[in-house]
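QA checklist item 7 of 12: single-chain prediction sanity check.
[x] sequence parsed
[x] length recorded as 692
[x] structure emitted
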Amino acid sequence: MAYPHFVYVPPRLRAGLVLVTAVAIGCAQPADSFVDSPALNNEITLAEPLAEDSGDTAVDCSEDPNVYPGAPERCNGVDDDCDGEIDEDVTSTFYLDLDGDGHGAPGTGVEACSPPDGYVANDADCDDAHATAWPGAAEACDGLDNDCDAEVDEGVASVLYADVDGDTYGAASSGTEGCPGLDSGVLDATDCDDNDADVWPGAPERCNGNDDDCDGSVPADEADADSDTERVCDEDCDDAEPLAWAGAIEEAGDGVDNDCNGEVDADAPDCDVLVRHDTESVQAALDAAPDGSVICVAGGTYVESIDFGGAAVTLWGVHGAATTFLDGGATDRVVDFVSAEGAESVLSGFTVQNGWLDVGNGAGIRIVDASPTLTNLVIAGNEASTVWDQRGGGISIEGGAPTLSGLVVRGNAAMIGGSGYRYGYGGGISFVSDDSIVENLTVQGNIAGWSGGGLAFEDSRAAIFGTDIIENGPVQAGGGGVYVMGGAPSFENVRITANEAQEDYGETVGGGVYLDGTEATFTNVVIRDNTSWGVYGGTGGGVYVQGTGSPAFVNVVVERNTTVDAGGGVYVWSGTPTFQYCDIYGNTPDDTGGFTDPTGAEGNVSIDPEFTDDLLHLAATSALIDAGDPTLLDPDESISDVGLFGGPSAGDRDLDGDGWPAWWLPGAWDAISSSTFDCDDADAAVYAGAGC
């Protein structure tokens, strides 16, 4: 039967057409049997004759001619066959490759048409954290299974030898398998002493009697045939004589050239007892020596804690403090005078070092109700720490009247460490209720937690002459150089410079000097370049005074000191200090604070002192020459100069201990007129006729 009102559609197009309901003139058909098509003259185009109520509902899902029901599914992110699924059965699985070695990690697969960034088409990697590990990779000695055969470092490990001393040479008896650079040990097994980093094949030989270069022999000049602990290479001039070596103490009357200077019994010191080596005990010699003895100690380091025990003897480091050390071993105090020793108990010629106290005062030297004589000593690197109010990192004096002469006190500490408030007094020396005599000391680079970085005095009557107190502090409360509470210590011809009080939590006072309720006196003193500052302010860069005392200043220069708030030179909180013939000049932010400026009265001035050098000699043009207290005379019987080198003791300073007093006259040192004076009192090797 023919259908005159329908247009023929080729089979190629029929499959993609959508059957829709149409109305033909004079005809009615089921709604699902027609294709909606542009029609003219109300014609309806039939996709294909369909059986009535066939139930076929397949429709085209895209205008793309390649997308239609039954089309082949392609991997393109499109539902090509219009079945409601995308790329079914056409994707591939790709695996994450974190280390970029071209091999993915099992269990990380994702389905995709092409590999996403960082993915590969295999999951053969056994270690996706290391690019050097994948099937077939070369095995390396690196602690990894590089070739993914479930074995690590097979066939590539080396024998490594322990290198205990870190000299890159190992001990042959200690071999174990491992990887260089990964496992401990070294490849070389030729170390002949793996406990000494200076011993290895080819090492330089030391003068110690050992085979340092591992060649199986000890050089002949390292012999010590006489067992005197000295070797030929150490200038033992007679290895058959146990009493002879370079640096030994010459013994009178023994017929031996003990010190190897080519002369027998020449210049032998007057010794009653000898401590010849640092292997011998200084304490044992002290205990055995009768009163009046001179115990001579040879150069070396003696790690001991010494107690004089009341012995009236002289303990003398014959070769001097530069080579003779009493060492506390950082475990104890070094020297004790606590048995009423008198002036006949003498300690001389040593460096007293490395004392440390967790409890107690005086880590270097402690003096309690005793009056010993300390001369020509270096007190260095001692610390009284961690206990509240500890005193005297270098020396603690409590009572008595000791004499201290020619000492260098440097790098000591008295403090509680750590954050927050720190306490401790007298980093260099603490004086309590004493009558000490102190002359020609250098007190430098010491620190106290609270007050008195250099020196601290409490109810003391000590007399300080010809001393330098320099570069001490910082301290937390005040008195970077000097702290005085009560008492009446005196300071004469003393330099107090470049000390510091510093407070990280509040304010500080007295960068140079902090005086509290004292009758202390300062005569011919220079207080210069000291600093007092804190995060909340500071006063008294040079001097701070409080309490009810009346400290006195005569012929004193206070110059170039600095603070934060007021009294760059001198600040008085309370008390009644007096100033006569003093020069307070050039301080920051001002010269005085808290009291009436004394300038213009009692001979006081505020002028440039005109110092020629850091040792604080006055220039020949200085207005401070002959401008001091007229009742005090210089050594040439002229009116005293103001400052460090004025007054009757001006010519007595000898800080370097070379026996040549410092040049004290104004102006430059004169080789003709000053042949008996030192041009450099900081260097013992320089004096008139020897370097000046």
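[x] summary fact logged: The helical segments are 11-14, 282-288.
[ ] second reviewer sign-off
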